[in-house]
Amino acid sequence: MLGRWSKPPVEEEQQPRGFDDFELKLGDVMRGERATLGKSLLDVQRELKIKATYVAAIENADPSVFETQGFIAGYVRSYARYLDLDPEWAFARFSAESGFAVAHGMSPAASSARKPSAMALSTSKRKSDDPYADPNASFVPRGESFFARIEPGAIGSTAVLLALVGVIGYGGWSVLQEIQKVQLAPVDQAPGVASETTTLAETSVVVAGLDESVGVFTPSSEALDRLYRPQALTTPVLVPRDGPIVSLDPRTGGALVQESAEDRLEAMSRQLASAAIAGPDASVIQVVEEPAPELALIAVRPSWVRVSSADGSVLLEKILDAGERYILPATEEAPLLRTGNGGGVYFALNGQAYGPAGKSGSVVKNIALSELDISDSFEAVDLAANDFVAEMFKVAQNTTAE
């Protein structure tokens, strides 16, 4: 009965705890500030020159990691300044959480711990060394090796290139060796030495220089005339001699006829008259064709011309002045003409004018300078109807280009 009338204990209602209700340690504050700055332990080590293990020991409030206890206060204050915290407050919190007290300068705790010898270190001790000091740690970034930069494709291309250079070099060396070989073959007849030589004076050719500004020297027309020879005719041209024979009178001429002086003179006069009618060359048999007709270039206006032979050599290259003439040499194949002013160049074929070579101021090239090409490709010019061209042709009769 007594238990019924007793009041149950009233439990205090727990209120929700806020952020400030939790106790933050020094390490939590420092890690939060370091995270705000976006720095890792290795970044702090590079910038503050403090080992990453020491930085981690400060955040964990573990003074046993430090080799020298006298440097702990300086490390804690430097790290606090780096995080923009109060250095004295940070050191006080570190001392309170870790139970660290500043040792007297003469006490053994203030001195650095003596490092054991290398022979005394055991395998377990070596494994417990500073992980950040190990260069082969898994989190330490590795440098790129030398062979990682070499691609297999590049090695193959280099090998092919070296092989190609070697093959080309060996081929060139082999060809050079073959060229330098001298082979002697025995002959039945001993080589002879020419005993007669032709002097230079006997074979000298007159060379006519063109315009000095051009600097091209070619043989003259007289020298090039020797290159052309009239071709032999298939059938000789025969002149009938019936006329002179018929004109002879056997009754008045001959060894047996008694002629007087007057009769002989009359017979001779008749023979001379018949010979005059038949022509001076009636007794000559023509066995070759007529020589090539004369073909000349005549400039009615200043024009640059170049005359090239069939083999490409330059016969003439200069500027022909108005009224200047150039007689083409007689060659086996027709030369070619190129001019910079087609309207100022005309042709004279056996005294007949043809032209012009083209329009005024136009460039004309590859014109074959032969009798057939000139007569077929260009129209004859009536000099009586063109006074200017006729005047230039008269001037050109006395002016010849050199």
Write a compact overview of the structure shown.
This protein has 402 residues and is of the alpha+beta class. Helices cover 33% and strands 13% of the residues. Helix 3 crosses helix 4 and helix 5 crosses helix 6.
Describe, in plain words, how this protein is organized in 3D:
The protein is an alpha+beta fold and 402 residues long. Among the domains are: 21-110, lambda repressor-like DNA-binding domains (434 Repressor (Amino-terminal Domain)), CATH 1.10.260; 239-284; 295-396, no CATH class. It has 13 helices and twelve strands. It has helices at residues 2-5, 26-37, 41-48, 52-60, 72-82, 87-98, 123-127, 152-179, 221-224, 242-246, 261-278, 371-377, 387-396; strands spanning 207-209, 217-219, 232-237, 286-288, 295-299, 303-308, 314-320, 324-327, 336-339, 345-349, 352-354, 364-368. The chain has a four-stranded antiparallel β-sheet with strand order 8-5-10-11, sandwiched between helices. Strands 7-6-9-12 form a four-stranded antiparallel β-sheet, with no helix packed on it. Helix 3 packs across helix 4 and helix 5 packs across helix 6 (87-98). The longest helix is centred in the middle third of the chain and has 28 residues, at 152-179. The N and C termini lie far apart (160 Å).
